[in-house]
Write a structure and sequence with these properties.
Helix content is about 30%, strand content about 20%. It has about 160 residues and is of the alpha+beta class. The chain has a single domain, classed as HIT family, subunit A (2-Layer Sandwich). Strand 1 and strand 2 form a beta hairpin. The structure holds zinc ion.
Length: about 160
Amino acid sequence: MTTYSNAPEDYECPFCQVVSGIERPHHGTKQRDIVYQNAYVTSFIASKWWPNNKGHVLVVPNVHFENLYELRADYATEIHRAAQMAALGMKATYGCTGISTRQHNEPDGGQDVWHYHLHVYPRYIDDRLYLTQGYPTNPDDREPYAQKLRDWIAAWPHR
Ligand SMILES: [Zn+2]
């Protein structure tokens, strides 16, 4: 049913596993990376970082939509609310001076996980986000960022 699907037939979706509380030993994201979850969406610190934009967030729908082409409007609304929350939390706790979002569809669009996800990056002057490459991180490096955003979001009156 997926429009323009690129996922293999037997795809074990890592983001569906994050949403449902399953941790795989060899997969990056842990439950303690999650900074916000409601009935529609889950936000977590990305396991892959960019060198000058550490602690960026991924927002995913709790239902498996592969890409933007099939994303439902009620989920899209909640995804942007969660992105706004992450952005304001980063502004308040990371000391960043800007925010960028990115979202990729299909291999030629740079997609590499077959479950819709929106990247929310903290930005800094001359950070070269679009000129640098991502690299894998370990959960202990992510924890201080997750803690900051979790605490900020939990205290945010408009969530
Ligand atoms: Zn999925």
